[in-house]
Design a protein that fits this description.
single chain; 209 residues; alpha+beta; 5-stranded antiparallel β-sheet; 19% helix
């Protein structure tokens, strides 16, 4: 996307006299065909940590855009207030659905650790090796009375039919080549992996989880 295209998109509906420059840059409300591109335990300079997943849009106007979903299983907020049960229940069900679509069974035992940090780390390790699955990410927004320019965002998932694996046998290869004498690239030939995008700050009102 050119800078001009980006400006057209960013300034559409933007009121410089009223709207904040720091308006959220995430996906607008809607349903998106995505691939799960990252699963990890994320921690922030503030001390807040979470189970983090990244969804990359693979088609449509927002293709290539990533949405970070950060979920905490802390039972109290940084201000010492109890997190409502309905929020924790929603978060548990989100991870359960994500696991199911990845072929991983998430049970009550996965939330049995004594603190949320251990739970976040455990879930990240359990699901990390299954990234690449395609899912429909459902993004819903609702008004934030304290900061109208920064609406609350919640997420849901729907299953998708996965792409068929391509199986190649000897008859599909050129003469002189067989599946038995081809060699895979060595680890040393692989490019260095780039770190995934993650959020860099948080505050109580920015995370509905």
């Amino acid at each position: 996307m050119s800078l001009r295209d980006l400006a057209n998109k960013g300034l559409a509906g933007f009121d410089p006299n009223k709207d904040s420059v720091d308006a959220p840059q995430g996906l607008p409300a809607g349903e998106y065909t995505t691939t799960v591109s990252a699963i990890e335990h994320r921690s922030f300079d503030s001390g807040w940590d979470c189970f983090g997943s990244t969804f990359e849009v693979v088609e449509g106007e927002h293709a290539g855009q990533r949405e970070n979903v950060n979920i905490s299983f802390a039972e109290t907020s940084s201000k010492g207030k109890a997190i409502p049960d309905f929020i924790l229940d929603r978060n548990i069900k989100f991870v359960s659905k994500l696991g199911a679509f990845m072929g991983v069974d998430i049970t009550a035992d996965d939330f049995a650790a004594d603190n949320e940090t251990d739970i976040h780390e455990h879930l990240a390790k359990k699901l990390h090796d299954h990234i690449g699955v395609m899912v429909t990410l459902v993004v819903t927004t609702r008004p934030n009375k304290k900061d109208p320019s920064n609406p609350y965002t919640s997420y849901d998932l729907k299953p998708m039919e996965q792409p068929e694996e391509i199986n190649i046998d000897d008859d599909d290869l050129p003469d002189g080549l067989t599946s038995g004498n081809t060699s895979a690239p060595a680890d040393a030939d692989a490019p260095k992996e780039k770190p995934e995008d993650t959020a860099t700050s948080e505050d109580d009102d920015s995370f509905p989880f």
